[in-house]
Amino acid sequence: MKQTKNIRKAGFTLVEIMIVVAIIGLLAAIAIPNFVKARATSQANACINNLRQFDGACQQWALEQRKDSSATATLASDLTPYIKLNSAGSIPACPANGTYSVSWIVTNSPKCSLSTATPAHQLQ
To answer: Quick check: is 119 in a domain?
Structure first.
């Protein structure tokens, strides 16, 4: 007696694969803008922390050198001994590729060129 077996090959149908791809695309469409926003916020926070460190170094420099509030401090020459340097041994840079002002008056806070960006890279 001859038996015919209904052998079905295991695998996914085209519709099942299309549904999975659509779900992955939907999740990516939701996640990517949030990732970009979180990255920009993180860069702004790191820049603000650098500015805070520069401001503290400027205040400490003015106090130790007995400078008045109208004195101008230069980032590279005057403040380097008061700043924690990065692993390369240089002054920390803005993580969003902004530039810091080279010198400022003791009573004014240091500035980043991205102070008008969103989120702003400036001390409050």
So the answer is: no
Q: Please, what is the end-to-end C-alpha distance for the chain in angstroms?
A: 90
Provide the domain limits for residue 74: 14-105
Residues 47, 98: Cα–Cα separation, whole Å = 9
Would residue 112 count as lying in a domain?
no
Number of domains forming the structure of the chain: 1
Look at the block and give the residue holding tokens 């790191």.
46
Q: Output the six-digit token pair for 118.
A: 């969103």
pTM over 0.90: no
In a domain? residue 35: yes
Tokens standing for 43?
Answer: 């860069």
Q: How much is the mean pLDDT over the chain?
A: 90
Distance CA 54, CA 109 (A): 8
Closest CA to 110 of 53, 32, 51, 50: 51
For residue 1, count other CB atoms closer than 10 A to its CB: 2
